[in-house]
Amino acid sequence: MADKLTPEHRSENMRRIKSKGTKPEMLVRRLVHGMGYRYRLHSPDLPGKPDLVFPSRRKVIFVHGCFWHLHGDPNCPDRRGPRTNRDYWKPKLARNRQRDAEHITALEIAGWSVLTVWECETRDPATVVASVRAFLE
Fold first, then answer.
1. Hey, which bits of 81-123 come out as E strands?
2. Using an 8 Å Cβ cutoff, are 114 and 60 in contact?
3. Burial of 116 (0-12, 13-18, 19+ CB in 10 A)
4. DSSP state, 56?
5. What does the pLDDT read at residue 9?
6. pLDDT in tens, 35-89
7. Are 72 and 64 in contact (CB under 8 A)?
8. Which residue of 49, 52, 77, 122 pairs with 39 in a disulfide if CB–CB is 3.0 to 4.6 A?
9. Where are the domains of the chain?
10. What CATH code would you report for 22-136?
């Protein structure tokens, strides 16, 4: 399928995508805060700079975009690969996934528990609340 945008426009769109303060991350932050939990953001001293850090509990939460982190769930509606320039995107996204696994392993070795919330899961806030509550308690 051909891209509807010119390469310059597509590049500009991709450049504007943020790594912090994304819509799914903000939703999870609001839900967790509303549940009464307090956390630190993007702790630079931890592998992967987790999105939410609960230092006293030694727990962290990553909020991953399904496209950027190659969500493996076959039921994920956002589980789509790049349609154009696949030679560039496939290794880049595979490296993101590999790096995520390395960060999780390093955190667990250091005694941290890790929860990953996927972008598609944020469509059902009740499920996010239940999984976060089960993880933090």
1. 113-118
2. yes
3. middle
4. G
5. 72
6. 999 999 999 999 999 999 999 999 999 999 998 888 988 888 877 777 777 888 8
7. no
8. 52
9. 22-136
10. 3.40.960.10
